[in-house]
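User: I've been going back and forth on whether these two constructs are worth ordering. Before I decide, could you fold them both?

Assistant: Sure. I'll take them in the order you sent them. The first construct and its structure tokens:
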Amino acid sequence: MDEEVDPGDENVNSVLAQESSELFDVLSCQSPTVIMRLCQMMPSGAGWNMGHLAPTSSSAAVTERIKAMLEYFRVASAADCRNFLQSMCILCENIPMRLESRLMSVAGYANNVRFPTLTDCSPLSPSEQQLIKRPRIDHWEQYIASVVSLMLRKWERLSEGLVREVQLENVWVSLRTTNRGRDRPDQTPGPADRGSRTPEPDGDFGSLESKVTLETFLQGCAGKVTVVAGQPGSGKTLLMSCLGQQWAHGLGPIPSSYLFVLLEFRQLNLISSPLSLSELLLRYYLPPKRGDNEKRAIVDYLLSNPEQSCWVLDGYDEFNSKLTRQEVQRKPLDPEKALPVADLISGLLNRQLLPGCTVLVTSRVRDVRDLEGISDKVGQLLGWDRYEIKEYVVNFFGVKGDSANRALGVQAADLLLSSRHLLAMSYLPALCNICCICLKHLLLEAETKLQPGDREEERGNETRKKATEKELKEGQIAGERRGGSQDITRDGTNGRAQLPPTPAQIPSTLTQVYLTVLGAFLSHHSGKKGNSDKAKTTKPPQSTVCRLIAQSQYQSELCELSQLAWRGLEENKVLFLKEDIPQDVLEFSVTTGLLSQVELRLEDGILVNAYCFIHLTIQEFLAALRIMTSNDVSDAQLRKRFSLKTRWMTKSDQRTVFTDSLHTFVCGLASQHCTAALLQMARASGGTGVQTWVQKRQALVLKLLKNLCHSNTLTGPKILELCHCVQESQDHQLAKEVVGTRPTLELRNIRLLPNDIDALAFVVNSVGDNGIGLDFGACSMELECLDVLPRCQYIHYLSFRSRKYGDKFAEKLSSILPELTTLRKLEFCGASLTATGAASLASALEKCPDINEINLSDNSLKDEGMQHIADIFTKLPRLASVMLSRNNSSLKAVDYLIGKMSSCLNIQHLHADAMKEVIVNFSQLSDMSSYKTKSEPTISLLNQKWSKPEMQKVAKSLACCPTLSVLDMSGGQWNVEILRTLTQFLPKFSVTNKIILNDSCSSVEGLVVLTGLLSNCPAVVELHISLQSSPEPVQVSIVFSGGREKPAGQTSKTLCLSCCGLLHIDLERVWRSLGTSCDLTVLDLSSNRLGNKGLRKLLDVLPHLSNIQEINASNNGVSMEGVVMLAGTLGSSNSLREIHISNGGREQVILKFCSDKSDDKQQLRMFRLNNSILLPSDVTTLCRRLVECRSHLELDLSHSSLEDEAIKNLLKVLPEMVSLQRLNVGNSISSITGALILVSCLTVSQRVTSVELRPQSEGFIHFDRVKTEHASCRLTHFSLDCNNLERLTEILEQGPPLFDLDLSSNQLKDEGVKCLMDSLPRLKITSFVNLSNNSLTQQGLLYVASTLCTCDNISGVEVSMGAEERCLIWFRHHRDSEKTLSIRESRLEREHLVRLAEISSNCPNLTKLEFKNNLLHSEWIEDFVKELNIGQRGCSVSIEECWIRAEKAIHLVSRCLELSSNIQTIKVDQTTLHLSLMKPTELMSVSLVDCALEGHQLASMWTIIQRCPSLTELDFSINSLGIEGAESLSSVLPSLPNLTSLSIVSKETCKAVAEKLSEALLQSTTVQCLNLSGHVISDTAAQTMTRMFPRLRSLNLSHCSWSPAEGLQLVTAALRQCVSLEGLCLDSVHLDENSRVCLAQALMNIHSIRRLKLNKIGTVMEPPEANSVLDLLHAMEGLKQMQEIELKGWRLADRAVEQMTRLFPVWTELRKISLSKTLNGDQSGDKLLGALISCSHLEELYLCGNGLGDLTAARMALVLPSMTHLTVLDISENTIGCEGSVSLSKAIICMKNLTKIQLTSVGTSELCAVASSLAHCPLIQDVGLGWNNCGDEVALELARVLPFCQKLNRIDLEANIVTVFGVDALVRALQSCPAVQLIKLWRNKVHPNEAHRLSLKDRRLNFSST
């Protein structure tokens, strides 16, 4: 404080004058009330008027009054001036302490102060004010003096034993600005890392602005919140104490008049109760020496002058609470109110308490984010550089000034600087101290080993140990401040020696460093106890630890200390009170230096001693030791603690005081190198089986690491952390797994240190020759990191992306690039590289011959830099691409690159887009030297700003270039002169493909310039120009011949001038530019303005275009006049073949020519006029001109408007158009009248073969060359009424005979159908009439059915009124007189059935009636049967209804038999009743098959059956007869004297049924045909059957089950006696080897067999080579009457196949053979087919599943044509190829009787030939092509042949790859194929929505699996 000055008149006024400026500032901040009181001290004569200063006065008025007041008292009397100053000190707030002290001193203590009052203010006593304020200032100054003493004492304690002096001007800080707008600076984290991120110490939490000293950084911090961030061990606490010491000495940035309050957050954590601000200061920080008055005065002064206090809050990262930023307006807090300590700190930071005070906060970098929006300035403490580290190490060893120590210090410094992991630790002062302790221990131990007996050395060692004790204390001081989650930097080895030979062995990992440090501390304690145990041999550093731990005096203490460390880690605790630590452990820990003592003030203000580890990493390391050596830490606890940290933390992450190094140490301790130390430590814990337990725990850690290695969700920082952990483990296999799934390691926006690169190297070097990439994006990286980068031996890809990387970085990178021998790709993008840096990189890249990709985009190379890079092109033989985009270059650089193409012949592509993109691609020399055809290089010069000189320069360079494939010069600025300049040089260019000049030409003048190239430059073969293609740019391309010369007369050239706005007068300029010798083949003049005149000029020049092939004149405004003009040209030009016109010529106009100019009338010509409005006169004129065309003609008028008059005019000319082959009027006919007019062409022209018309859909009229015999008429989807039908039938009666008449979907209804039926006898129709989808009712159905009686030539009627309405009338072929009637889903009533019975009775030729799902009742059916009167020919009736089952079926059968005496056979099969009627007849057969019949239901039938003595057949198969049914049947069998056939196929397992039946059959001697398939045959039944077998002619025992003995008895005893047996079926019976031998013997005795079925018995027991199989085949040689043979599943061997082939010549009457899954490949099939040629009567052939191939198919082509009776062919599940498919098709062509062919899964999708061959099979009904991957081509071929297959009803295309395109074709074909009932399309490439649409279009398409 300034000394007081005696008051004096002159002195008072002069002081006021000197301080007037600061007084003005103070007064300007006061309230209007204070100003008013002070102004009232001036007399009224001074010009003061009280009304001039109101509370609402403007600031300018107040300012003027203050100035006037100060000016008045400056010259006033001394007394007035003194009174004014006294009053001001009393009334004013926030007067700076210095100023207030001076004013009070000069004003004195006068008692005559005149203090004015106002009516609204209370009067104040000057004496009271003076008495209060003066003592307050005195107490304040005294308290500051006490704080000064406190700071000096604190510094004296902390600075004891410092190696180097702490000076704020030598500490560097980086200024940073907080990135408030970006929550995630690191771009690598994935979705799992949610929330905003705060950087850890290695990361940048803001942008780096500058680097200043800490002293400079703190300048101007008064009144602000300043944050100093730093890593744990960076000395934040020490620096804050130094700041306090400087303040105490009146130095530094904090004014000495301020109150300096230094609070440590770790001590604030102990305050649990709320307290006020005054309590925090006066009770907890520094209690005052006097009483409450002093406290009150201090607090009052502090609250009145908060700007005079500085609050230093040290170690926010250790604070247990978390501060939050207040987004809303801050509300002042009451300083006297007790609040939680967190609220008090928040109040200080948010200016809610002591606004204007200075606040300085220290924290770790990661926690700075909590202070965003609060802090005014943030700085980060920078680590030491190498010079500072070396200086510290030398000073550490040379504290005593001993020369030996200094030499040792130099050696230690060299070792440290050469060891990457020690150097990385030493950037932080505290860790540097630990490294020095480690090195000193190693070096002293090494010296001891070298001179073990030197007593002087021992004394030196003792001296050094004593010095070490003091250094340990310094280490405790340097590391006293404990940090939060900071990661200690690590290092490791990569398989190479890192240090020169030295006596000391440097640890190879961070964990081993800490093991060595632990050994140093233990050794220090050992020295104190006098132990002198020395190693006799050289051992690794951890061996010392093992030795020291093994000593008994350390074991228990060290174990308890590690337990203390672990407990602190679990409880997030770093400070331990004395009572927390056992006394012996405390003494041990303090003696060794592992624990340090700190002073702690408790909540009650009492000072106590507390203890903490010398650094947080020491505590974490000891905790890791506990984890790895004690079973009191469970595996679950280890897993919980084991997780990788990211350098960016989420706000939701739990705060911790520790550095997150625990998992790193755990990984290091899992290394085999640490196993010995762990075992010693574990044994010290007193456990048993420690070796197994320790190894198990190490294995668990490695397993956790392995899981992380395989994780695919790790971010860049976590991957880097994983590399550190793997490096610590020294496990090379783990390193391989890290990079196994990561071809590139991406690191983004994190700060990298050399030890990070070294960790990467350890991992990268495990990848081997596979190589790996490193991608550094916006990472802060010191140049020293690049020194370490060459340790990564297998880098293939290296990328640097950041503006942080400039020329210096590039220069440094250049120095190490040649060492990266495996580097293939280098990226240096988005950086600050200039030509200087480019030169450095170029010189380095020359030494990297294997480099193949370089990317230097987004820099500032300019032309010079790009030239540096271009100069190395020829020196890098493997270069593939170079990217130089966005480098501020010009055309000069591009021209230089073009010039390089002459010397660097492997440049493949040069791309330059307005200098924004510059890319050079290269071809490999291996490609150039190979025999492959090398593609020519290309150049793209896009969007350039051309001038004539620049064009000339670049064009000259291009002319010197080697041959180019493509030259693209699109975009940019062009004019005609520049274009002409280019065309002058263009003939000199060597271009094989094309030149692209988009946006280069904008006028017809430029177009003409370019057109001349076709004649002036022989190499140019195509020119494409489009000037008006908006919004697209102007399109210009010049195509070259490719260097391939063609013979004369074969040159083809194309000129495309579309969208150029050409008029007819412009064509002359174009023709002149082209010249007379133009060889144009394609001319495109579309989208111009030529009109009819231009079209005429074009047609006039046609004779000169001798090679023309196509002319496009679309969109040229041509009218109908031009269309007629073109029609005339079609007849006059020999070469013109097709004309395509749309919209009357206004849109499409395309002319196509052929090279053959001969006048061949057989060549088809087409005139297509679509989408046009055709007037009648236009049609007449057009057709008259087309009459002149004598060649075959197709006229397409589809999608046009044809009125009725126009159609009539067309028909008038039609007879004269003798060359017309097809007329297309699709989508042109909309009215029924017009359609009928067109149908009348059948009467106008005798050449018409078919008329197909559909409104607004396809419509064709086909013509034959001569008069046709049969025509086809299809008129669908019109609305025909009776009048229309009458007109139609009149036309059809006059026309030729019709093959078919399709009137489906015409809404005819019943009336229309009746009209047609009445006319039907007069029509000449040979195939069918289709009346489907015409809304018929049951009455219309009867009309149609009646035609069976009225028309003799009708062979059948099909009607279905279900979802698919179907009505077909079939006409007979080949004079067949039989007729059929089929009615389905028609909801018939009783009267309908009666009427149908009448119709059927009146039709004597009706032979077949079918009723299916018509909802008929039983009574109705009975009436129908009763009314039905059948003629002599007989008739079959089938009625299917779902209710015909069980009792109802029996009842219906009984009633039918009662009502009709004409029933010959009656059968119920499932739900269908079958009747065979004949007149006269007797009942011959009764069958009830698979109709849910039960035995007790049969009784009602027997009465009727017994009255039918002629009954010869009974069939009750597949029912549930049971024993009751068997007994019932047995009772009736004797009453049937003529019964010869009995079939009872069983699905039961009751033996009694077979026994009962066998007994009854024994009595029924007339039964000759027996089917007992599926029965369980007992011994009793077998014995009974054997007595009956001799009389049997047919026996079926398939699927029967019996014992081997029973089966043998049946076969041997019974079958041998069946000498008359004609049919034998033993499918799937269980015959053993002996039974089959006996069967063979039996067959040799039976020569009458015609049908033999032995399916699936060949592989039941033995392999096919078994002799029994051969015996069976040999036995068949005598069966010469064989007609059917089935041997499915036998799998015959070669010998058996040969035996089988010898049988075929014997079986000349063979009709059916099934050898599925019997043969063994293609060779067997070939032999078999060769032998089958003798079976000329064969009708059915089954060969599926035999592995047949092309060889067998080729044999089929030779054999099958001779089998003219073949109706069924099944060769599914074979492996026939494409050739076999062709061979098979040749065979099918000759199979005229084929009805069914199955080619499912035959091994090829090439079945087009097979599908095509079906057209030659008129009887084909069923085709299976499923599961072959057939595509649309097969579907299209099937659609083509469908009209030729009139009987085809089923096609299987399941599991193919047919698309909607193919199915649509099938739908179209189905329109003319009414017989087709089903096409299966499941599992094809048709979307469900499309499948639904197509199914609605035609319900015969089935896309489901059922």
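The second construct, handled the same way:
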Amino acid sequence: MAAAGALPAEWIKNWEKSGKSEFLQLCRTLSENKSHENVTFRDIQQALYELANHVVKGNLKHDQASNVLSDVIEFRDDMSSILADVFCILDIETSCLEEKSKRDHFTQLVLACLYLVSDTVLKERLDPETLESLGLIKQSQQFNQKSVKIKTKLFYKQQKFNLLREENEGYAKLIAELGQDLSGNITSDLILENIKSLIGCFNLDPNRVLDIILEVYECRPEYDEFFVPLIESYMYMCEPQTLCHILGFKFKFYQEPNGETPSSLYRVAAVLLQHNLIDLEDLYVHLLPVDNAILEEHKREIVEAKQIVRKLTMVVLSSEKTEEKEKEKDKEEEKTEKPPDNQKLGLLEALLKVGDWQHAQSIMDQMPPFYATSHKPIAIALCQLVHVTIEPLYRRVGVPKGAKGSPISNLQNKRAPKQAESFEDLRKEVFNMLCYLGPHLSHDPILFAKVVRLGKAFMKEVGTSKKLNSEDRMVKFQSDGNKQEDKDKMEILFSCLLNITDQVLLPSLTLMDCNACMSEELWGMFKTFPYQYRYRLYGQWKNETYNSHPLLVKVKAQTIDRAKYIMKRLTKENVKPSGRQIGKLSHSNPTILFDYILSQIQKYDNLITPVVDSLKYLTSLNYDVLAYCIIEALANPEKERMKHDDTTISSWLQSLASFCGAVFRKYPIELAGLLQYVANQLKAGKSFDLLILKEVVQKMAGIEITEEMTMEQLEAMTGGEQLKAEGGYFGQIRNTKKSSQRLKDALLDHDLALPLCLLMAQQRNGVIFQEGGEKHLKLVGKLYDQCHDTLVQFGGFLASNLSTEDYIKRVPSIDVLCNEFHTPHDAAFFLSRPMYAHHISSKYDELKKAEKGNKQQHKVHKYITSCELVMAPVHDAVISLHLPKVWDDISPQFYATFWSLTMYDLAVPHNSYDREVNKLKVQMKAIDDNQEMPPNKKKKEKERCTALQDKLLEEEKKQLEHVQRVLQRLKLEKDNWLLAKSTKNETITKFLQLCIFPRCIFSAIDAVYCAHFVELVHQQKTPNFSTLLCYDRVFSDIIYTVASCTENEASRYGRFLCCMLETVTRWHSDRNIYEKECGNYPGFLTILRATGFDGGNKADQLDYENFRHVVHKWHYKLTKASVHCLETGEYTHIRNILIVLTKILPWYPKVLNLGQALERRVHKICQEEKEKRPDLYALAMGYSGQLKSRKPYMVPENEFHHKDPPARNAVAATVQNGPGGAGLPASLTINAAKLEESTAEETDKLKEKTQGAVKVINKAANATPKVTTSNGNSASNSKIIKEKDDKEKSGKEKDKEKKEKTPAAIPEAKALGKDGKDKPKEERANKDDKSRETKEKTPKSDKEKEKAKKEEKTPKDEKSKTVVTNAESKFAAEKEREKEPSRERDVAKDMKSKENIKGGEKLSVAGSLKSPVPRSETSESEREQKRRKVDTHSSPSHSSTVKDSLSELKDSSAKHYINHTTPALSKSKEREVDKKDLDKSRERSREREKKDEKDRKDRKRDHSNSDREVPQDSTKRRKEENGTTGSSKHSKSESPSDSPRSNEKEKEKNKSKSSGKEKGDSIKTEKMEKSSSGSKKESRHDKEKTEKKEKRDSAGGKEEKKHHKSSDKHR
């Protein structure tokens, strides 16, 4: 006890003085403190308790206490009750104490205070014994008994009432009371009083009365205001549970098997629940069925739905079908026995109808989701409640303009949910109701429309106050006035709206029966969402929603079933009816339908067209869903994007892409999602899906990218936009205006234009280095082409569709593109080019407006000024793209000019314009002639054609002016283009490397542009530009370029070569054209420098005849490269060279023997590849056919580059020297006429010898093959031609010539050979060094060689003219020969010595075609060899034939001259030599057979020994045996020309009559048949074996040769 707390001991001690007053003061203070009522109450109790406790203990007298208490009692009304409580506590405490005194003190205190507390209160609270001792009761025992009796009477005794049958009158009066007309001023209170008196009067049972009140209320539901207060006030007289029990009994009554609970009872229960007269928990237990039963039923429904689905997807045979149907009938009959009502749902419906949402919600929460609303009456009741709730808000913001709508009256009860006045109310009240409705909103389309319209209105409101940023999926507000709270509210509202759409609107649409209007209504709201949200909703709808509810599961199965039915019957013929069915089905279930349709399209691509046509009955929402479904199908991770062979893109992807293009073009579908998908795939380094972009751009913008363009189309593509549209494309490009506008808008709105370009440009290399990985080379090429083509196509679309401002705003400057975005240079310029053109034209227009000067000069001046203004920054920008060294050779201005111009700037395609104009004229004539066409249509058509014609002519005029301005500008610029700080050769290298090659494979038009540009630079007489070198470099080594192209690049490269060849062929065809276009142009300048003759430098032009030699050399080089590629066996090499050859067919091959060589190789490919690689076989067959058709246009070699018949011999010589690389030293051509006469004739004679039997002689053999080693096939070509010529001569004449010439060569040749043998040793080392250098310099050395050849050819022409008939020529020549040889030898020696000194240095061509330092044949051949080495990857002939080449070349040149002077040797010598050779060859063939086996092993073992030499003889022998040009290295490339040579030789030999020769010939023929036919038939590898054997004979170099062969093979 904390007594001391409130009453200090001092107060008790000094009670009379101060204690009493202190205590009173405390009580007063506590009583007045009203703020904390219960605290005060406790404190007063405590104070009084402590006071009484002091009395009990004896510290205070009871009268003192009673005095003070009589004062305190007045402070509070309930003070006496508080005092009684205190006495009660003390009574209990003191009765337990043993000390009697304390009990006495207590009793005295109570007695003293009796006047303060009433007896009744004390009797209530004190113990009966205490009461007895106080004298308040007589006997405690009696008192106890009495209280028990009263309690029993109160709680346990039942009063006896009269029931209905007993007291009819009372109940009749009761019903009369309740059933009277209540419309007057009768109140429930009045009636209640009457009821009370009836109960009293007739002693009625109150429960029964309540029951009757409820019955009457059921019958008079309209009197809520009367009955509810009546029941409420009546309930004050009853137990709280009574009403609930009575209702429960009523519901129980109807729970019989066929009982049906009346709706009136549900309504009464609902109203009572709404007014809280009963508790739902109390009533709920009385209702059936129990919750578990409901759950079971729900599960059963789901199982049934799944079974239905399974049945629909199963294939059922007809016999089974009938059984199934019977079973189903039985089941349905069983179902007819109706279970008792679901009273919970009945009550729920009633609650919804009276608007009691809280109770309704709690009932629905007890059930499985959507179980309640799946019952139509409940769904409709809930919809009605929602209608009422949203009415005011809908009237304010949702009603469309002009619509009246029928207003909905409010519920006539105050407890219904509050009506929504704002969107916030909507969220709080309505969204929750809708969530309970779920898919069953479908029962009320009107409400569906209202909800959607409210959503639309909300989005509109959001739109004015904020902007949806799709990136971070946040709602961003523009207006600053909005507080954070508003933002949050908006965000929450928006997410709620999305939820409602996902859970309610879309599922409800699914269950609506093809309601197109609802679909459109919903789209009105959807189109305000960013596509990311929409697609997320569609994804949920398609993949989640359909599994959430048994009804939806069934609908899904039925939709798929119906879709199958339609798709099976869809054809081109019934597009319309099928389209209508598809439309009908798609209104409610688009996701499922499209998913199935797309799966069919992926399997059968012939469905694409009918499906696209049949989609015209779709709603806007469905088109959007279709876009989503397409993206989902594309992104399907389970599908492989490659076919099983891993070399082609899967057909499903190709079909989808094609469908995409068609459907997006035809229908107004939003593209943003698809474009973003492609961009995302590119970001992830996947380029397969570019196929889609390619198709979409092609179909929507009408921009095709095809490698199959004809030259006419290409020409049209170089004109203006109108010409492009009319003549440039395969398809009819009509009506793409709208679709291309849509595509443009989608790209700009979502900022995808530039990112897509950059991603594609970067991905081109990604395809090879990242994506390529383990993929097949063919597929990598395809992907690269697809990526590149799409970039070109897409860039073209942007250039032609974006406005100047849009373009310039989006495309950064060239240095940023290349250095920051790492865009390849070709692509970067491709993107920037339209920008420069736009810029220049707008600047030009500005300047024109500023000054009105109309003169052409003024205009040109302004144009040039505007070009300078625009291009100056570009010139500065490009400097950063390459190393500073580059700009030593070409200027940034030249580089930028090359990359910024297009074909439109260089030439006007007059032919194309004329062609299209003529077409239109023909059309107009046809319109005139057409009798059936109505006149007004005729007029329209004619007007259209005329307008088009005028447009084309106007465009042509405009382009012509433009081209003239551009050419003026180039004329002014050209002097600063090529700086040539190093050499012309370097300049050409840079030009080809940085400009021509990258651009000529960029697109077909660029290929044509490059060829034109080269010609233009030539025509402009650009300083430091060697046209000859440029063409030479382009035609000389095409192997590497061809091998490294993809399929489409090869096609473009072929176009480029074709255009280059066209120019060359034009110059070649006519001397006048050549003189006019090249005669005195700096591009055809050749500089000859020689020592000892002229003394000075003499500048010279390449004359026409020499130019023709050079062209022949180029043709020969192309043949060699082609044959090489065809023989590699490599897929890429063969495919690409066939593509290139097909493209250059109009201009190559022109020479018969080259054509034949090609034809044989291609024929071989056809045979080899027929089974192995069908695509190569198809290409080869195609080319072969076209080649045959070109045969009539081919000419013999002598017609190709020498028109005068006497000069046949000279031609041969040229062939030998020309094509193969300079056989004769450059410096020997100074004494042109004389020298060349002799040389030419000698070479001819040599060749004739080789054709005859004399070929065997060692030194002579030395010469011929050697020339060939350096020259490739040249010898063979020349032989063929010679043979043709020879046939024209009489056989005898030939014999004489041969006899005279042949032997003559031998002695001298030997001498010279010996002479020359020392030098090669010294030079070997140099050559090795040089060979390394040449690898880097290959292109240069080629050019030098070719230059040299050209020059040699020049004098040959003159020579050819001087040669008279055969008889005369001998005499004339003999005199010359006597003079020549000595001089010739000096020159040769001279050169050799110089060559040795120069040995280690690099041989560079200082800007001219001729080397300034005299070069011996040796140096030429070395270079040639080095180049071959590089050409063929391994250098078999390098080391082995160095020595030979030196000596043999010397020999050959010597022989040329000696031939004419020496007297003829006897035939017998010839024969001897022949026989010896024959014997040797026979021995060799035997050895060959023995050693075959050994060689194979050796070859493997000795792969690495590459630097040993082979003595001359073996080399020569090898050459002879093979009957071709002995170098193993060239065995491949020579085969084409071998066989014709050998055959023709055989013919010749048969002709020749001398008996000795006959013997020799026959032997020779055998040998040649073995070897040269071998070269055709035998595998390369056999040839190699034979060569090995010979090598083995020759002491030193066996292993080395093995190495050549093996390396050959590897090649």
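Notes on the second construct follow. The CA atoms of residues 1253 and 1564 lie 7 Å apart. The mean pLDDT is 74.
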